[in-house]
Amino acid sequence: MVFLRTLRLRPAAAISTEILRLWFTARDAQLAASTLAAPGTRATTSRDGGPGFNILLWSVPDGARMSSPNTWAMGGAPAPEAVAFQPAGGVPVVAGLVSRGGSVAGLRLEVHDLSGQLGAVSGDVAVRAPVAWGFGGQALAGVSVRDPRRVVVMGVERKLGARMGTVKMGQTVLGHLEEVKLLGFMPGAPPRHPGAVVSAGRDGYVRVTDAGSGRTLKRIQVGTRSSPSLMQVAPVGGRVVTVWGRDVVVWDVDTGRVQSYNLDAVRDTEGWPLAISPDARYLVCRNEDGFDVSDVETGQFRGDFAWPAAPIVAAAFDSTGTRLAVGDMEGLIQLFDVVTGDA
C-alpha cells in the first residue's frame, strides 16, 4: 500500500488548532473537520456561553474551502462523537448536540444542511453523545441523557415546502448494563423502518437491536477491560469491527463468527488506533513516526507514511477506501490517494 499526497489543508493560515475528528461527507464530495474553536473567534462561545468547536468543510478533490455559513460552531458537547454526518443524499447534512444550559441536561439535537440548501431540523429529545445516522438518512440514534445505558431512536421529518423540520422520538432500546459508548446502524433497513441499531458499551457487549420493536437480534460479549473506542459497520456483508484499547474484534453478524487479536501481538511497533475504513477492511493507526494502515481481519501491515510534523490525532477514509485524510495536533490536514495494489 502506497500513500500519494494530493492536498495540504489548514483551518486558518495563522492559527494552529487541534483537529478533533475528520469525516468524508455523503458521496465523498467534501472533507469535514471538527476543530477546537480558536480564541477570539465567533465560534469560541456557543449559544449557552460555553466553549465551542467548529465544523469546517473543504470540497474534494480540489480542496477549496467552503465559505460561511458552512463553519458551524457548537458548544457544550465537546466529544467528537457528538457529531455525525448523514451518509445519504447530495448535500452535507450534519446532526450534532448543542447545549442550551451549560449542562448535559440541556443538550438539544439539531440537524443542519451545511450547504444552505435545506432548512434546519431540531428536536427537544433528551439524548447525548454518541449520535449516529441510519444508512438511509431518515433515522438517528443517540444515548439517553436520563440513563446512558439506553439508546433513543429518532425519526427525521421534513414536510414539503417547510424550511424547518423536526426530530421525533421513537423506540427506546434497552439491553446494556453499563454506558453505551458507540452507535451505528446495520444496512438494509426495509422501507419506513428505522432498521437495526448496533451499540457497544462499557459492559463489554456489542448488540444488534431492532430499532422498531426494541428486541435484541444478535449480541456478543468481548472479554476486555477497556471501553470501546472505535466501531465500524460495513455497508454490505454484515461485518462489525470494534476496537477496545489494543484489542480488535471482527464480528460477522450473519454467521456469528468472531475473530479477535491484540495489536501488540501483530505489530512490530506501537500503534494507536485512529479510524476504520467504511468497508471495515483497514485500520489506520498513529505511530511515533507518522501513521500506518493494517488489514482489519488479520492485523497484517499494509503500508506506512512518515510524518515529521506534530503528532497525528485524527484520520478518515472515504467510502471507497481509496482516499485517506489525516490531521495533527497543530491543525494540518493532508489528503492522500491510497494505492493498494489489489487486483
From TrEMBL:
<protein>
    <recommendedName>
        <fullName>WD40 repeat domain-containing protein</fullName>
    </recommendedName>
</protein>
<dbReference type="InterPro" id="IPR015943">
    <property type="entry name" value="WD40/YVTN_repeat-like_dom_sf"/>
</dbReference>
